[in-house]
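Run folding on both entries below.
>entry_1
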Amino acid sequence: MSLEFIPTRVFYEPGALDYPLGKTLVERFKYMGITMSPTTSHNRITGIPGNTATAQYREAKRTLVIGVRRSKTFQSCKPSAHYQLPLVTSCPGMCEYCYLATTLGKKPYVRIYVNLDEILGIASNLIKERLPEMTQFEGAATSDPIPVERYTGALKQTIEFFGREPNGRFHPLGFIIAPIFRFEGWQEAYRQLMERSAEELVKRAPSGWSSEQLTLEFISHRFTSKAKATILEVFPNSSLPMVEDERKFKYGQFGYGKYIYQPEEMQEMKEFFQDQAKRYFPLAQVEYFI
């Protein structure tokens, strides 16, 4: 069984054909025998099949949309970076807990953008605006760009771009442990995860690499009312812990509220992961726990 992402269907904006990457992708998917359909906008796709919310969600994850990102603004990305770098939207994964259920809804099809030079041009201007400070960008805030990298080459081009930007920084190598749940035996389960991660990193790290270059980010599970409704419609048998009365309500940076663990629970989790980080990654930089 191949783990490569091969879409079942592809939609494309006609304007994407004005870019070399857009032309290449359309020709490639036609050659692969994949169903191709034009669309007026990558933001509004119709024609994804499915008689139930579950089926439509599954088919959306198999749908790829080739578009042009026209917005000139980047969203903020606190606390991990100054800005999100919009290389891709969504991913083929079927994770029940995905926080993007709040914004991408029940049909989170995968979007790639062919005007990468323009996107990186915006990033360059943002870097100049903050000089002499360093400006950091997050490339996977609303997506996982790796499954489509074989088609786009966007990560490669982006890494090369930041290699030429002394005051720009692409998110460094690190681990994001998320979402963190509380359940019976959670401490031992996460301890084993940290231990295994440290062992695998030693095995796979290139010669001369040091864990001083590693960053760690810890994100506790949280959900919004909209995400909960979407998750329960798409995954009706979900066992995710989403009982509002057991959580604390908190407003987030994007204007909507979320349900997070209670303060004393958060403190216990924070202290636990700080201790585990010191034990298994003593030289790494812990960016934050939220």
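>entry_2
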Amino acid sequence: MPLSDRLVRPTDQASILEYLSGHRMFGVLQQPDLESLLPEIVERIYPKYHRLYHKGEPTTHVYIVRSGLVVSAEEREEGNGCTWQIYASGDVLCSGAAILDRPHVVTATALADSTILLIPRGPFDRLWRGCPEMVPRIIQEMYTTLRRTEQAVVSVAAKGAIARIAEFLLSSDPERDQATGGEGMPIRWTLTHEDIAFLLGLSRETVSRAFSRLSRMKIIATGRRRIVILNPSSLAELARS
């Protein structure tokens, strides 16, 4: 779907300026530099399962996940894929590809309704070239992305289904409700078992069986769009197994 067909939210420049001022990559910039960038930024809402970009397309923008969940994956002809990275609120996609002017090597898909800030490659290039203090932040973001990808590869290669699901639940902080209410660690959930299977390289049946087992073990409790981690220490032990 072309960018013009996706829902464009009217730009609230004051809100975006405040957001970028507190962002781990862009917060190092001076106020005039951020203000000069604002007219170039577009805020788009990508519904669940809509593509941000496809493998092989030129990198035209840097993407900042303001809210939601985005997954980058290697698509295959048979319809499934191999997930390389999960991006949540605050994460930045494509900064390295934009700097090097390289095409996308994977496809990025919204796995929940997601609000994304798009910065064109040209203004982003001028920004980091004119503000050297931003370069270490870009390198740190790229390192974090690479490190998480390495961990995902190791997890797929070395861990069983239960361990991978336990690890995923423990890492789902962006979806976690801050008010635990003394009932464990609630996670607001927008993902289906099929979504989780896609993310972790498992079958939907395997994911369903794993959730049932974790519920029987009283490690988690499930409800409507909500999972409660009842026993974080046991879940962490399973994640290490």
